[in-house]
Amino acid sequence: MRYPDADIVALDPKRFTARLGNSAIRRVWTGMGWAEGPAWHATGRFLVWSDIPNDECLRLTEEDLHVSRRFRSPSGYSNGNTFDREGRQIACRHFHRDVVRYEPEGGLTVLAARGPDGPFNAPNDVVVHPADGGIWFTDPGYGALMDYEGNRLPEAATSPRPLIKEAVYRIDPASGAVAKVTDAPYKPNGLCFSPDYRTLYVADTGMSHYPEAKSIVWAFGVDGTGLRDPRTFCSMEMDGRTGMADGIRCDESGNLWVGAGWVGDGYDGVHVFAPDGQRIGLIRLPEICANLCFGGTRRNRLFMTAGQSLYMVPVETRGAHFC
């Protein structure tokens, strides 16, 4: 390996300042079926993520990057993970089609199993608003379309939305009530807040099943417990090729880091967009990047779940949020 790493590409060197001259992309772990849902626990100094087909969560500890399997097993074919303000893990489970919280004493609390329109398809990704503890999550339904990643429902034979229209939801932390905040995206997937929590970004992977869907990341204004002013933040088209955005995170400068793939070499990996929606950087990986998060004591390590592997690279920025 020679520095700088040729697969960390500054498309706009003036704005993509997170690239370090002497750091390299490192494959930390491999051998999974489909890696997803990384989340950083700041107090415990560990990363958890999902291997959906193998029905488990794994854990990496910061001290020596040691990886342990079966941190959660079975995990309910969980996908997205996050931690709340009290350090409790929240997970979206494909098999059970719900959102759950793991309690400190070892118990499990089901936070949501149905919305205002009925049972969920299969919740996918989740974030927590630190100001009020509200839990926001997406329900694109992939875990209900195949046994490999969950539990294929009979309705999947005739519809890409097995039970209800795909949507984004919010769980009220006080009452536990579940509200649908938008169903504008065809298949809302990864989501995250801007550093000031005034914008919610949502990746739309609807082109996987809907020919009319565009491969974009949406931006919504956050209006208390609801959303307003939907707009296209960025397109995933690049040099005439179009893949899909999956998991997303913001850094402290408001740049959006997007796990991307389904195209091939030169595209699959991480795409970095400035706050104005312009693509300014790339991290090229040899596998499709499903999701990512910032971690480490100073939140300046980028962890990427990609295909069969977990990758890590130090960057000269910090994640905007606590997990």
Q: Describe it for me?
A:
With 323 residues, the protein is an all-beta fold. 0% of the residues lie in helices and 47% in strands. It has strands at 8-10, 26-30, 35-41, 46-51, 56-61, 67-72, 78-83, 89-93, 98-102, 108-112, 114-115, 118-119, 126-128, 135-139, 167-171, 178-182, 188-193, 199-204, 216-223, 226-235, 237-238, 241-242, 244-250, 256-261, 269-273, 279-284, 289-295, 301-306, 309-314. The strands form 8 sheets. It has a 5-stranded antiparallel β-sheet with strand order 1-26-25-24-23, with no helix packed on it. A 4-stranded antiparallel β-sheet has the order 2-29-28-27, with no helix packed on it. Strands 3-4-5-6 form a 4-stranded antiparallel β-sheet, with no helix packed on it. Strand 21 (237-238) and strand 22 (241-242) form a beta hairpin. The protein is globular and about 55 Å long.
User: What Rg is obtained from the alpha carbons, in whole angstroms?
Assistant: 18 Å
Q: How far is the N terminus from the C terminus?
A: 30 Å
Strand order of the largest sheet: 1-26-25-24-23
Largest sheet: 5 strands, antiparallel
Continuous helix count: 0
Supply the helix-strand structural class.
mainly beta
| Number of E-state strands | 29
- Averaged pLDDT: 97
Backbone shape? globular
Question: How would the blueprint of this fold be written?
Answer:
Layout: E1 8-10, E2 26-30, E3 35-41, E4 46-51, E5 56-61, E6 67-72, E7 78-83, E8 89-93, E9 98-102, E10 108-112, E11 114-115, E12 118-119, E13 126-128, E14 135-139, E15 167-171, E16 178-182, E17 188-193, E18 199-204, E19 216-223, E20 226-235, E21 237-238, E22 241-242, E23 244-250, E24 256-261, E25 269-273, E26 279-284, E27 289-295, E28 301-306, E29 309-314
Antiparallel strand pairs: 1-26, 2-29, 3-4, 4-5, 5-6, 7-8, 8-9, 9-10, 11-12, 13-14, 14-15, 15-16, 17-18, 18-19, 19-20, 21-22, 23-24, 24-25, 25-26, 27-28, 28-29
